[in-house]
Amino acid sequence: MAASSLISLVCLVFTIFCLASMQVSASGVFELRFDRFQNELGRDAKGHCCDGFKTSSPSSSSGTGGRCSEACRTQFRVCLKHYQTSIDLSGVCTYGDFSTPVLGENSLDFSAAAANSSSSVNANKDNAANGYTVRLPFEFSWPGTFSLIIEAYHQSSNTTTGKVLVMQMATQRWMDSSNAWKADSYSDADGLHALNYSYRVKCDEHYYGDGCANLCRPRDDKFGHYTCSEPSGDKVCLPGWSGEYCSKAICLPGCHDEHGFCNDPNECLCKLGWQGKLCDQCIRYPGCLHGSCQQPWQCYCNEGWGGLFCNQDLNYCTNHKPCKNGGTCFNTGQGSYTCTCSAEYTGTDCELVKDDCTVIPCLNGGTCSGETNATCNCPTGFHGRRCETSTQQTCTDNPCLHGATCVDTTDKGYMCLCPDGFDGANCGHQVDDCAVNRCQNGGSCVDKVNGFKCICPAGFTGPLCQTDIDDCQTDNPCLNGGSCADLVNSFRCLCVPGFTGSLCQTNVDDCLTKPCSNGGQCHDLVNDFRCTCKPGFAGKDCSQEVNECSSRPCLNGATCIDRINEYKCVCPRGYSGLRCERSAAAAKLNATAPTVLGSASRLSNVPSDASLSVAQIVMIATISTAVPLIAIVSCVVIVCLKKRRQKEQMRSDEEARRQNEQNVVHSISKKMDKMDKCLEEHRIINTLDFPSTGKGKAINEPDYAVVQTKDVSPHHHHQQQQQQQQQQQQQQQQYNIHRTSKALNVETFNSDKLLNSSSCQSKEVISSCEPTYVTLDKRLSVTPSVTCSSSPSEHKRPFPLQHEDVLATSV
């Protein structure tokens, strides 16, 4: 087992390493599109309700129980990993994973939701009209095979609950990169969940091929001029470029292969010694005038030229043709010539005209005057140097235009007979037939030769645009039996009742007015509607309440009271039951049933399986929450009242205890006063600075043991008494408090015996008073005191002191 896990780990690390090494050479994205998800009953993967409880019986059509009262808040997780023969559902998603937010409840139709949504989507999803798309990019050569895991979860609104698995699927597939989607589906064994989805592998920009591993980035710079072909990504050179990287320019067509070159397409740059548009002309020797070359820097003289630079004209007459007016040229060599002129001209180049009348005769009856620079005097109607031009045209001059017939006249010389559509002296003016527009309905008139043409606006035809085109003449465009009414270049559909729209293509929704009463459900028909009434109502619009008492369900003379979808039977004395069907004798055998409500559904003896309504569910949830809360609040109130009562009892007990203490102190104080009268000579002096009174003994010592000490002299006693008397006025109050507190501690002191034993009301009781000496813990000075007794034999009888905090005496 350990060896198998180690091998799997090594394979995974090797795969990740290979993918990391290919990141620079490939890039693309795996796209998964959710089309539809079905979870009609709102169950999780175990068949339990995601939330809430089942609201219908297990006899539903699914065979797995009813619909849950609360919906599943559905979200998805997509895991893409390398191909595995046995898919590890808990392993690492080597190609990537993504979790969507909550997309909806129970069943989801993503294509319909996306079509109705106009919102944009986040960076990792494409909420296009085709569905909800998840994109998982990769940067390695796509292998073609992959493993896909899709999980649906219920995300509870309670943060402590977490996610609940609703559906889980895993599959292996193969697909090369393509822009086309491949559809797939999944359905679990119990039929509770179904998923329709599509997927594709799409290369990123500039990446091509089945594995998106062919990088081709279009460019147009000095390193190349090309685009990329689909889907292989081969380089396609831009026009005018060639070569492996399309970096070699294609020169102008015809550019000489050897004598020309180019840096950019369709240009031809010549090498040294060559010229011309195509670099096919050699450059002659500098200074060569009338010569040619076959190679650069040559000068071969043309015919009639000679010399080193071919600048000597050997055939001047042929090259320059200097003789004018028909003169004949003769070469005389070295660039010279002579001209032989005709009889009418003279000069070196025969450029001068002879002016004598013998040479230039006058025409058309003109007369010549002068011997040199002679001129012709022309008769009327002619002009020119020799009177050769007539000033009055005739038909021989063809003055008539556009095929008009010319007739010679004596006064004007000629007359033109114009054809139809033209007029004027020479028939050169075309008659405007559109001067009076005869085109109808806004048509435009175009003039033609001896006629016109009307250009009709849309919706009209005919020579004069007089005919309205019937747009309803062809196939009737109106749908659902609508009648077509022709308009100008348009039509209007007259719809039958129940339809509307420009083509009567829309069925009027008769349910928009909500005609169904009492909660009835409306179903639209053609120009009509149908209401599905709730139980207890009937009629076209569910406005009629069904009288459940019409069937007389109550028996034995009971009175029937009609209610909505139910009835109530008020039974006469001696009868009971739903329909008052049980007599008093039967009622004695069975528990007496109260008057109950009946309904038409109960009369049919068909068990009703109506599910709880939303209001009932809310009421149950409210009661379920309120009852424990009220119980908790009640317990808290009871505990608080109890503690309050205890505190009041403690305060009452404390007050009673304080009152008892005061009473005890008061009683003891009275008894002590009686004792002081008897023991007025018995005095204990306190040296601890506690106050003492002038009579009787002072009980003001702390809790100390009393021991017998030696006698003290009367003189010493007198000095101490004077010192204490000075402090009596200042310490009287402190003494009283101390006395009271010490008296409270006398719990076992038998005051009655003390008083009885020390009573000195009768002088005869005290027969002997012997002086004694006592000391309190070696810190008290003792004065002589007497012990009262009733007889001499009992003079040593001590006071019955029983508490260690009270004075203990030794007689």
Automatic annotation (TrEMBL):
Region of interest called Disordered, as start-end residue ranges on this chain: 648-669, 710-736
Membrane-spanning ranges: 617-641
GO MF annotations in UniProt: calcium ion binding; glycosphingolipid binding; Notch binding; receptor ligand activity
GO cellular component labels: apical cortex; cell surface; extracellular region; plasma membrane
Keyword Repeat: yes
SMART domains reported in the protein's UniProt record: DSL, EGF, EGF_CA
Low complexity bias locations: 720-734
GO biological process, one term: germ-line stem cell population maintenance
InterPro entries from the UniProt entry: DSL, EGF, EGF-like_Ca-bd_dom, EGF-like_CS, EGF-type_Asp/Asn_hydroxyl_site, EGF_Ca-bd_CS, Growth_fac_rcpt_cys_sf, Notch_ligand_N
UniProt topology in membrane: Single-pass type I membrane protein
Disulfide bonds: C203-C212, C216-C228, C237-C246, C341-C350, C378-C387, C418-C427, C456-C465, C495-C504, C533-C542, C571-C580
Keyword check for Repeat: yes
This protein's UniProt keywords: Developmental protein, Disulfide bond, EGF-like domain, Glycoprotein, Membrane, Repeat, Secreted, Signal, Transmembrane, Transmembrane helix, Ubl conjugation
Location in or out of the cell: Membrane; Secreted
Residues in the signal sequence: 1-26
Main location: membrane
Entry-linked PROSITE patterns: ASX_HYDROXYL, DSL, EGF_1, EGF_2, EGF_3, EGF_CA
Comp. bias regions, Basic and acidic residues: 648-660
Superkingdom per UniProt: Eukaryota
Function per UniProt: Putative Notch ligand involved in the mediation of Notch signaling.
Entry protein name: Delta-like protein
Taxonomy of the source species: Eukaryota, Metazoa, Ecdysozoa, Arthropoda, Crustacea
